[in-house]
Amino acid sequence: MLGLASVGVFKEKGRWKIIIKNTLLLVVIILPVLHPFLKDHVLFMQVLSLLYVSFFSLIFWEVMKFLIRPSYVNADIIFAAGCGYFLLVEISAFLLLFMYYNHPGSIANVDASQVASTYIDLVYLASVIQTSIGFGDITPSFHTTKLAASFMGVLSQLYNVLLVGILISKFSSKINSKS
């Protein structure tokens, strides 16, 4: 559903961008349909996770371009800023999901009883990492997942700093243009 809702972000024309967007959208729709049949295949879950990382990264890029372009602040800009943050959580969750399926012991205390439980635990972990809360109930246990979690935390803080800078510059340019 999130993939379908995100298609509206692509407003620009460009043959390759349209091809990539449509291909990723098709894959994002078809793969979950295959999920009940292939959920026990680790390779399928890894490919699914990486495709979602690619799809949401492409959408995140489009949201960032939207945030930078205008010289004003309105409700669309504020909503896009929030969507960008949630997209970072989704990208991080699917990257963690890939890492988890690559090495099941790489993240400790994940509920692996059902695929949905694993996904929810990793969305929770991604949110905890990005908000820098760090409860410690679900933790990365391998060096690669520790590095990825660190990178996700730094990337999230960078997004926050850039976002505040963008919004302040747009807001201050609006005030300066009135005076």
TrEMBL record:
Protein name: Potassium channel domain-containing protein
Pfam families per UniProt: Ion_trans_2 (PF07885)
Coiled-coil intervals: none
Source organism per UniProt: Echinicola rosea
Annotated InterPro entries: K_chnl_dom
Ranges for domain Potassium channel: 89-171
Keyword annotations of the record: Membrane, Transmembrane, Transmembrane helix
Bilayer-spanning residue ranges: 18-37, 43-61, 73-101, 147-168
